[in-house]
Design goal:
By secondary structure, this protein is α+β, with helices and mostly antiparallel strands. The chain has 13 helices and 9 strands. A 6-stranded antiparallel sheet has the order 1-2-3-4-6-5, covered by helices on one side. The protein has a 3-stranded antiparallel sheet with strand order 7-8-9. A hairpin with a 5-residue loop joins β3 and β4. α3 packs antiparallel against α6, α3 packs antiparallel against α10 and α9 runs antiparallel to α10. The radius of gyration is 22 Å and the shape is globular. Bound molecules: adenosine-5'-diphosphate and magnesium ion.
Length: about 350
């Protein structure tokens, strides 16, 4: 496999590359500096192994066009696009200091409600802006969310608009396909089943999966194999958040459950609706903009005073088994494998179709 040429000290347009800061399936990201203005930027350079792949390049260009057309505090600001001397492509972005949300979760596990409120309200506003512009992210996941430390707490930026629908002109090679599929943990059931009418509720599903993970420290749909994860996405529900983290109530469980509904028409219609329902479930008013910019300590205070005034709801009635539980239906592992294969096939076909159409 072709490795990336050394970039440190290399000139990319008016920028000098200084040090590597991150890497994804498509590209490596470096810190760089504008030789004239001294402005610090992040420069994302397409991996050499995909730099000659028409689909990957088109996807990268589309990422640049999409992200540069979106101007929002919660969406990474994209500046320039250009070609390297060795024939690869780069784009420059505002340089963000901090870490991927995925790393925060890895290091810290489940987060408390105040941080979750701030992060989810900010994400919802960024997504809402993109959706209002007709842009569906399609690959929202903790690895594509960047967290910086602001004065009042976490400041999130949505990265990587590379999975938005591509408009290609004619027949292509499909070596970028694997990167398009990526990790399926946050894929919506309609994406997993290969349906083509993906809309903003696909991002709402991913946001709900992230909400579950923020509150539990566990992925909503996990597994060792992509096929196993896809099966869970279309057929299973994750355990309720309140079962593992008592800082969250049954009302919060209901929000996650609705956000993860298999039928997109039964999900929240927008990311902001999900954030509003989350706020209400925690006893806060549903002003998403306000809570997105409130400091973490102000949110902690508001949550405390809301629990002081909120009556504790009585638990749902326990249902005791009156007889020996029925034996679990025997699973035919052959049937599961066939279903899995069909699902994977449909997802691949849909992705190919989405890239070509
Ligand atoms: N503007 C930025 N500032 C700092 N780090 C960034 C920036 N953009 C991306 N990164 C880091 O680089 C990683 C890969 O970037 P990403 O755009 O997700 O690439 P890919 O399309 O290959 O997945 C990110 O997960 C993040 O850690
Ligand atoms: Mg990425």
């Amino acid at each position: 496999m072709q490795s990336d040429p050394p970039r440190i000290g290399q000139r990319l347009g008016p920028y000098i590359v200084e040090e590597p800061v991150g890497e994804g399936a498509m590209a490596r990201v470096y810190q760089a500096r504008h030789t004239g203005t001294g402005r610090e930027v992040a420069v994302k350079v397409l991996h050499a192994r995909v730099a000659n792949d028409e689909v990957a390049v088109e996807r990268f260009r589309r990422e640049y066009e999409t992200a540069s057309s979106l101007s929002h505090d919660r969406i990474v600001e994209v500046v320039d696009f250009g070609q390297t001397v060795d024939g690869s492509y780069f784009m420059t972005m505002e340089y963000l200091e901090g870490q991927e949300l995925g790393l925060v979760l890895e290091k810290e596990g489940a987060l408390g409600p105040a941080r979750v409120v701030r992060i989810v309200c900010q994400l919802a506003l960024g997504l809402h802006h993109a959706h209002a512009d007709g842009v569906i992210h399609r690959d929202l996941k903790p690895g594509n969310i960047f967290v910086s430390a602001g004065e009042g707490g976490d400041e999130v930026s949505i990265l990587d608009f590379g999975s938005v629908k591509l408009q290609l002109v004619s027949g292509r090679k499909l070596t970028a396909l694997g990167t398009t599929l990526g990790s399926p943990c946050y894929m919506s059931p309609e994406q997993a089943m290969g349906k083509l009418d993906v809309d903003q509720r696909t991002d709402v599903f991913a946001l709900a999966a992230i909400l579950h993970e923020l509150a539990t420290g566990q992925v909503a749909f996990g597994g060792d194999e992509a096929a196993e994860i896809l099966m869970k996405i279309v057929a299973e529900e994750p355990p309720p958040v309140s079962a593992s983290n008592h800082a969250y109530s049954w009302a919060f469980d209901d929000v996650v459950k609705k956000g993860l509904h298999k039928d997109k028409t039964k999900r929240f219609g927008s990311a902001v609706e999900l954030a509003e329902a989350m706020l209400r479930s925690l006893g806060l008013d549903a002003d998403v903009e306000k809570w997105a910019r409130s400091s973490e300590s102000a949110i902690v205070d508001a949550l405390e005073s809301s629990t002081d005034t909120t009556e504790v709801a009585s638990p749902p009635p326990m249902v005791y088994p009156t007889s020996v539980p029925a034996p679990l239906p025997r699973r035919s592992s052959g049937l599961v494998s066939v279903l899995t294969a069909v699902l994977m096939f449909l997802a691949v076909v849909a992705t190919v179709w989405a890239i070509l159409s």
